[in-house]
Amino acid sequence: MKKRLQLLPISIFGALFLLLSWYTLSGLQTVSPQTYTQIIFWAIITLSLAALLFAIQGMRTRGMGRFFKLSTHFFLVLFVSELLFALLLFVGDAYRGVYGVFNLISKQDFLSPVRNPYWIGFAIAVFFSSVLLFLYGILRGKYAYRVISHTLYFKDLPSAFNGFTITQISDVHAGSFTDAKAVQKGIDLIKEQDSDLFVFTGDLVNNKAEEIKPWIAHFSQIKAQFGQFSILGNHDYGDYVNWPNDLIKKENLQQLKKYHEALGFRLMLDEHVTLEKGGAQIVLAGIENWGLGFGERGDLEKALKGTNANDFKILLSHDPSHWEAQVKNHPSTINLTLSGHTHGMQFGIEAFGIKWSPVKYRYPHWAGIKEQNNRFLNINRGFGFIGFSGRVGIWPEITVIKLKKG
C-alpha cells in the first residue's frame, strides 16, 4: 500500500509533464512541422524523465552525487522552460478562441485557422532565453554576489552609534560550494565593506559539520571592530540526514559549534551581549532556530533576560516567521531583527519594479526590509545555495545596514 501511495503522485506528475510536453510540441510544430522535430523532442523528453526517475530511485544508495544534480537540473530547466512557453502559447490560443466566438456569432469558423507565427516565434525565443538564463544561474549566477545597502533611522538609537554599520550574510550552505575562487570573491566583497559589526544568521552547512571544514580559511578572514557573531539555522542541527544514532547526531552539532569558534564567530545560543561605544550601549541578541514548521528551539525570553524594555536591541533570528510570531509585538522593544532562511527560493525576478519569487506563497515578505510598529526586519537572500545548484534572478546577497539616529 505504501508503494502505491508513493507511485500515485509520481504518476500524476509524469502524466501532467507529458501533457505539457505535448502542448509545447504542438506549438513548436507550427514553425517546424517536420517529423524529425517530433523525434528529437520526444527523445529529449524521454531521456530527461528516465534520468530523473533513475536518479531519485538511486538517491538513497548513491546520495545526491553528480548524476543526481545533472539529471534533476536538466529536468528542472526543461520543465520551467516548457511551462513558460506553454503559458505564452495558451495566451495565443485563448485569443484565437475569443476570435472564434465572434466568428461563430457571424456563422463562420469557430477558430482562427492558424496560430500567429510571430507570436509562436516570440514564445520560442522566451523558451530558449529561459534555458540560457537557467544555465547562467547554474554556472555563474550562484556566485554572482551582490551588496545590498540599507540606511535605517531610529529615534531611540544612542547618538554614539549614529552611522554604525553592520554586514550580514546568511545561509552559507557550505556543503554546496565547489568553486573556491568564486567563494573567495564573495569573502573579499564582505571584507571591502569594512563594517563595524559582522553577523551571520544561520545555516552554515547543509547537513553535516564537516562541510564547513574546507572553507574555514576563507570565512575566518572576516573581521570587524565590534566582532563577528553567528547563530544556528534549521539545517545546522542535522535534522535532514539519517544518523546511526542520536549520540552521533549530537556530536555533529557540537563539532559544528567548535567550527564557529574556528571561524572566529561568537555563536549565540539564546543569549545576548552588550556593545559599547562612546559611553553608550546597544544589545545584540541571538537565538537558536525558531521557525514555523522548521523547529521552534529558540527561547527569546532567555536571550533577553537581564535587558531593559527600552534598550536598543538587535536580534539575530534565522527564520523570519519568528519575527511575525513573537518579535514584532514583543513587550520589550526589539528595534532590528536580522534573518535569512528563504533564499528568495533562488529563483524569481527583481527588476523593472517587479519583485516576485514563488517563495512569496510561503513567506509574504521574503527578502529585504520590512517595518512595523517602528521595528525593522531584514531578510537576507542568502550567501550560498542548496537543492537547486544555481540562482536565477535572486542573486546571493551581502547586506550592509547603516544605523542612523532620526
Note down, in words, how this protein is organized.
By secondary structure, this protein is α/β, with parallel strands linked by helices. It has 2 domains: 2-139, no CATH class; 143-405, 4-Layer Sandwich (Purple Acid Phosphatase, chain A, domain 2). Helix content is 41%, strand content 18%. The protein has 10 helices and 14 strands. A 6-stranded mixed β-sheet has the order 1-14-2-3-4-5, covered by helices on one side.
Largest sheet: 6 strands, mixed
- Total beta strands: 14
The class by helix and strand makeup works out as alpha/beta
Which stretches are poorly predicted, pLDDT < 50 over at least 5 residues?
1-5
Q: Give the C-alpha Rg.
A: 25 Å
Q: Tell me the β content.
A: 15-25%
Mean pLDDT: 91
CATH superfamily of the largest domain: Metallo-dependent phosphatases
User: What's the helix-strand series?
Assistant: HHHHHEEHEHEHEEEHEHEEEEEE
Helix segment count? 10
Strand neighbour order, sheet with most strands: 1-14-2-3-4-5
**How many domain units?**
2
End-to-end separation in angstroms reads 64 Å
Quick tags:
single chain; 406 residues; alpha/beta; Purple Acid Phosphatase, chain A, domain 2; 6-stranded mixed sheet; 41% helix; 18% strand; globular; disordered N terminus
